[in-house]
Amino acid sequence: MIDGHVHLSEIEHPERAVENAVRAGVKRMVAVAMNLDSCRKTLALVDKFSDKVLPAMENTLIFITQNIHRCVALGEVGLDYKVKVKKKLQKAVFSKLLNLAVQINKPVIIHSRFSHQRTYEMAVNAGVEKAVFHWYSGPVDILDNIIASGYHVSATPALAYSPQHQAAMERAPVERILIETDAPVQYGDRLSEPADLKETLFHLSMIKKITEGELAEIVTKNAERFFGL
Ligand SMILES: [Zn+2]
Predict the structure, then answer these.
(1) What is the pTM of this model?
(2) 212 CA distance to ligand 1 centroid (A)?
(3) What is the pLDDT of residue 70?
(4) What is the DSSP secondary-structure string of the chain?
(5) Cα 131 to averaged position of ligand 1 atoms, centre (Å)
């Protein structure tokens, strides 16, 4: 299995987390970064675990331009209408990053909290061909447009309790779903790590009524195709 979205740089003992994940059957991890510091930390982990940790990054355009050739994707990037950063500024930065992704021909990992429609429109308008709407829990009509545009969505362990996330994953075709942990996000009473990818797989298998073994094969192929592995 491939964890399609994990913040390894935010985990207290990332090396141990990578080892635990490998033991739990997680073959590879797409490590997202969100600022210069996490970009640097993530690349240091890649130096150590080059066959297992695949970096994706955002922010600090110069750093990205210099290092993007080492990455499998650009992300996570997007809009967050819950945080108190002006929408106009968020859109300006996101737009630049989308253009960069198109220019360098890399898939984009999109964060779209309370901004599903706008992030979707911006991706389409920028000409993005490959995008994953990470932890998609938005309206199903926007989901239909996302799928119709050839994009993907990803599932997290929140499938255990989030009705919106469950509804989205029930509706999305299985060949457009990636699985992830978004570690170290806390689900329930403890911080997650990439080894918890099996939780995502379990809940998705219940929703899709596909055995975990078969589903693992499908979503791994999806991730390989999406990230060009
Ligand atoms: Zn994330």
Answers:
(1) 0.87
(2) 24
(3) 86
(4) -EEEEE-GGGSSSHHHHHHHHHHTT--EEEEE--SHHHHHHHHHHHHHSTTTEEEEE-S-HHHHHHHGGG-SEEEEEEEESSSSS-HHHHHHHHHHHHHHHHHHT--EEEEEET-HHHHHHHHHHHT---EEETT--S-HHHHHHHHHTT-EEEE-GGGGT-HHHHHHHHHS-GGGEEE---TT-EETTEE--GGGHHHHHHHHHHHHT--HHHHHHHHHHHHHHHHT-
(5) 14
